[in-house]
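Interim report, section 4.2 (structural modelling).
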Amino acid sequence: QSALTQPASVSGSPGQSITISCTGASSDVGTYNYVSWYQQHPGKAPKLMIYDVTNRPSGVSNRFSGSKSGNTASLTISGLQAEDEADYYCCSYTSSSTYVFGTGTKVAVL
Amino acid sequence: EVQLVESGGGLVQPGGSLRLSCAASGFIFSSDWMSWVRQAPGKGLEWVANIKRDGSENYYVDSVKGRFTISRDNAKNSLFLQMNNLRAEDTAVYYCARKFGAKFDPWGQGTLVTVSS
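Predicted structure of the assembly:
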């Protein structure tokens, strides 16, 4: 159960768009459309941002969007804002009926 | 409002035991799977365990199998994690979360478990 691979950090200027990748395997991301994304500010609990690859929960800004191609899922944040500065984690269901999180990405707003 | 409140964390010696609790409110607890997710200091999230609505199925990450037991009391809207034979690498903030489909939402505020002599 190796963690999904994410870039350690991604940065952008206010108003720009950034994309965070999440690479897994055929036993998780590649087979199941059960990828979710979580935002975590320092000292806070994670917050669901995207589920089932592309779906956005009620209350989450439409600046957040998700996609998937093969074994890699992606989270795009458009119109980057200062409040988006946080850690982001992907998560996937696996063929073992378990879940695996990504390594995490720190987003910096320059 | 859906709310999850963890308790039971603390300092424990290697090889010791601890039981975490999670009190749920604001939703029909018995209708949802529940989960525990942990985060070691300065590290990423790690899924630990899931339990089915009626407690009849549970799943664990390999590193805790045989040591941790997830359980629930639907009459008391409570989730538990019994942790035995604790190791230094189990040191983390432990979050309980509602597993709604294939997503975790919401999460509690977490309880810190420190395994150290």
